[in-house]
Amino acid sequence: MNPLKAAVVFINDIDTADKGIHPIERAPVPSPEEDIEHVEIKGRHGTLTKKYAFLDISYPLDFYINESMPFKQAFRVAKQFLLNAKTLRFSDDEDVHYRVKSIRIDTAENIIVKYGRFTVEFTLMPFQYETNETRTITGRTVFNNPGYESQPYIKATCSGNGKIFVNGEEIQITGINGTIELDCELMNAYRKTTGNITNLNNHMVGDFPVFKHGDNVVEFSGAISKLEVNPRWRWL
């Protein structure tokens, strides 16, 4: 394999080359910047450091189009595809993907009639996400997080009141006959059935759990019979 050859770029799990859009060179490997505040306090040695969240990643990629049709026509078609980008991944790192928040397409260089090149500026969420299977558990289970802290999806089957414990932290589920879904990233409790979403935030008491790096113990009690858990592992 040529180490300088550009990796295949997938947008929404579609090879961009299938759309006539080819990466010019190997993509760089970005890292998110942490939002950190340094506060100077009179009489204190050094600054007071406050760490907040990680910032979005600004990620430019260069592409070219060299098709049988004139470039201007091919570029119009390509933009329609690119502007619908939701995920981004690469063939040399297929275990993870980025979530695309927005894109900006720069002015293209149309060098000859059927060839042109341009830059796409992706704004990405700060994490690389694994694609994980949802796991059904019926008792105490340990989830080992290999990466950065994650915000899982948890679906509980319940016939009344119950409790979920994540690393000893308690979440109360009240008055549920059926299922309740906890999206810890969106901080939302709901039930989704045949396209309809029912707000169930008033049936949950407690904080939405986070899976820390390393072992995470998940347990439940009361009228809960099982949990379906997608850990949503992610990396920086």
Features:
1 helix, 8-stranded antiparallel beta sheet, 19 strands, mainly beta, 236 residues
Explain this structure to me?
This protein is globular. The longest helix has 12 residues, at 71-82. The protein is mainly β and 236 residues long. The protein has 1 helix and 19 strands. The mean pLDDT is 94.
CA-based gyration radius: 23 Å
Could you spell the SSE succession in H and E letters? EEEEEEHEEEEEEEEEEEEE
Percentage of residues assigned to helices: under 10%
Mean of all residue-level pLDDT scores: 94
Structural class of the helix and strand makeup? Answer: mainly beta
Sheet bearing the most strands, described? 9 strands, antiparallel
Alpha carbon gap, first and last residue: 27 Å
- Assembly status: single chain
% residues in beta strands = over 45%
Number of strands: 19
Uncertain regions: pLDDT < 50 for 5+ in a row?
Answer: none
Number of helices in the DSSP assignment: 1
Shape: globular
